[in-house]
Amino acid sequence: MFRLAFPIYVELLTAVVAVSVIDLLWVSGLGERAVAAVTVATTTEYLALGLFLTVQTGLTVLVGRRDGHAPIAPLIRTGWLLWAAVSLAVAVPGVLLREPLAALFAADAGTAALTADFYLVSLAGLPVFFAQGLVDGVLKGKGDTRLPMRHALICNVLVVGLDPLFIYGLGLGVQGAALATVLARLATLGVALLSLVRHAPSDGPGRAAAGEIVRLGLPMSGDFLARALAGMVLVDVVAGFGVAAQAGYGIGSKIMLAGVMLFYALRQATMIRTARSEPVGRPLLLGLGAGVAVAAVLNLAAAPVAGWFTGDPGPAVEFLRWMTLYLVPFGGLISVGGVMQAGGRGGRLLGVTLAGFAVQLPLAYALSAQAGVTGVWWSMAAGALVSLGGAVLMPGAGPGRRAGGPGRARGRGPRSTRTAAGPRSGR
Question: Are the C-beta atoms of 419 and 291 separated by less than 8 Å?
């Protein structure tokens, strides 16, 4: 499990977290409004990614089920058609509506203007981001998590080099950070496409299962989308306490993502192994243990790391301290979610996620009115506990579940018929 999950963690850490954190580090020299603008804009990007996860997740699960049993080339072709449809539906309205979208979540007019500048480039570049996700999703379905990790590392190195050039060298400011990120992703996509050509052969005709891709991926997309929407609501709630509070929340949440990506790596690993009918161990216990470990590390690192971003790390440090109550149940929930998703119970996972937010969001407003911004952090912990309780109480969601998803019921035959050609773990 950890051999499979570690490359995923590095990939997520570098491709999702590090890119936005690097942008924040470089634009921090432009002031609090720039930091707040990048925080709002990257939160919106996560929301857009949640929409595309329908395609990416569904494709990963189906490739895992069919690899070695049925042609996967039709799945890949269908995936590209869905990519084009989602890219067009998200990027075009996003660019056209960038100014009202920025005004909806920014704390003041100055921050809104900077956010709209970032949106102009970042939202137009979403098709590149989605294409990278599609390629990596196919490779993961085939059991290869190392190539997506390498692609993410390449992108990360490029952003490190391009950010200062575009932000300060060319004087593009906040918009330069967005342009550097899109160009880095475009170059990385070229490398990833070569990997896809080499590792996903054209294996003949077969059924192009667009409906099945959407059906399998939609619950994960809904789960991610709900989290992104809730995050945007929290940005709005915290904005009511001023720019300093909003910037502190943005910095703290970016730092926390470095730990949270461990949970998502475990979820992807359990999802891949479940789709491929391989054992998953005890994902719930792994997730809870990961939550304890991440909370401990973040408490130790809160003050020095927050100081990298701002001269007043107090709001970010307070956020990270309170997140201990949130991270432990959240780790358990996310880790066990991979088994539920690939095992055909993604709808139930989405249900408990929505139940948690039904508790969290009203509490965020109610508790913040009494306890200030700290009440928002309490509401996050309450929502995570409700979601975890609902997931654990579901039949078949216990900690000792083995993989063996719907694929076996369809007469594909046991995986052991394929392992005679060599162990799967070597891929």
Answer: no
Residue 416 lies in a domain: no
pTM above 0.85, yes or no: no
Structurally, the chain folds into a number of domains equal to 1
124, 95 Cβ separation under 8 angstroms: yes
- Residue 339: inside a domain, yes or no? yes
- Kindly state the tokens that stand for 239: 């904005």
Q: Which residue has the tokens 């060599």?
A: 422
- SS3 percent helix, strand, coil of the chain, rounded to 5, is 80, 0, 20
Cα 284 from Cα 350, distance rounded (Å): 17
Domain of 55?
2-400
Structural tokens at position 36: 């707040």
User: What is the separation of C-alpha 293 from the centre of its chain, rounded to a whole number of angstroms?
Assistant: 20
For 149-194, the pLDDT digits (tens) are: 999 899 888 988 898 899 898 888 888 888 998 999 999 999 999 8
How far apart CA 30 and CA 213 sit, in angstroms, is 43
* Overall residue count recorded for the chain in this entry: 427
- Reference 343, options 291, 287, 289, 276; nearest CA is 276
- CA distances to 13, 66, 152, 200 from 71, rounded to whole Å, are 32, 7, 28, 10
In a domain, 221, yes or no: yes
Report if residue 121 sits inside a domain.
yes
Contacts of 199 (CB under 8 A, 6+ apart): 139, 142, 144, 147
pLDDT digits (tens, 9 = 90+) for 290-342: 899 999 998 888 888 888 777 777 788 888 888 889 999 999 898 888 888 77
Distance in angstroms (rounded) separating the CA atoms of residues 365 and 226: 18
